[in-house]
Amino acid sequence: MIIANTRGRLKAGDLELALLLLSRGSATSRARLERRLEREGPDPLLDDPDLAERLLAVRTMLAPSAALFFYVQVRRRLLDAGVKEADLADYLAALLLEFGQRDRAHRVAWHDDHSHRYLVDLLADLTVTEGDRRFRVLLHLGNYALWLAGLFPQYIEARRLRHGGPDLSYYDGLGRRGYAMASDHALADHYHLDGILQTAAERYPALREALNDLSERVLFPGGYLQ
User: Fold this and answer.
1) Which of the pair, 41 or 163, is modelled with greater confidence?
2) Most-buried pick from 49, 53, 158, 223 (CB within 10 A)?
3) 136-149 pLDDT, tens digit each
4) HEC sequence for the chain
5) From the CB of residue 36, how many other CB atoms can be counted at a distance below 10 Å?
6) CA 82 to CA 207: how far, in whole Å?
7) pLDDT band at residue 59, thresholds of 50, 70 and 90?
8) Closest by Cα among 138, 127, 5 to 67
């Protein structure tokens, strides 16, 4: 189950790196940042507009952890798109971290027996699924649609041109539907995801465009086609 826990994975070394990058060797700046960290917690540090770019250009022995890198990059793109909810950035960063592992993006859960490579397969699954697994399939519909359309829009466009595949609006529609229906399920409240999923459904195109920007500028700057 993907939950909004990326910030909870951050270690002391992650905050040390953020302090180092933002202070740029200035003892005065570091002292100011440390006081703010102690007073307000890590969020203002992680939200600093300069941190995302400095993480991309880091040239120290302290490499950013995957959790720090993805949270800061996702958070910055969402803020630029006017999406201010930190918990939503937390959730989407966790989504990218988990779906980037092996074939997790194709499975409703790590140990699920079924592999879904197309959204239509998930829709078919929903017609025969009830209970707790129905929630997970709905959630995966939203997640998988956003993963594909957010990170691989060029691939989707190439399939549309070459094979008559659906365009991005198809992914937006199904992804929004998955999140909206999942937000109404009892398990959404149990996992503290109901508000996150409702916001994701309402702001879905903005989320997808934010991930498009992340894909183009950071993850696949040379383009991704398969």
Assistant:
1) 41
2) 158
3) 999 999 999 999 99
4) CCCCCCHHHCCHHHHHHHHHHHHCCCHHHHHHHHHHHHHHCCHHHHCCCCHHHHHHCCCCCCCCCHHHHHHHHHHHHHHHCCCCCHHHHHHHHHHHHHHCCCCHHHCCCCCCCCCCCCHHHHHHHHCCCCHHHHHHHHHHHHHHHHHHHHHCHHHHHHHHHHHCCCCHHHHHHHHHHHHHHHHCCHHHHHCCCHHHHHHHHHCHHHHHHHHHHHHHHHHCCCCCCC
5) 14
6) 10
7) low
8) 5
Token readout for 181 is: 């229906």
CB neighbour list of residue 121: distance below 8 Å, 6 or more residues apart: none
C-beta separation of 218 from 56 below 8 A? yes
Indicate the length of the chain as a whole number. 226
- Rounded Cα gap, residues 151 and 70, in angstroms: 13
Q: What are phi and psi of 122, to 5 degrees?
A: -70, -40
As given in the structure block, the two tokens for residue 216 are 């183009």
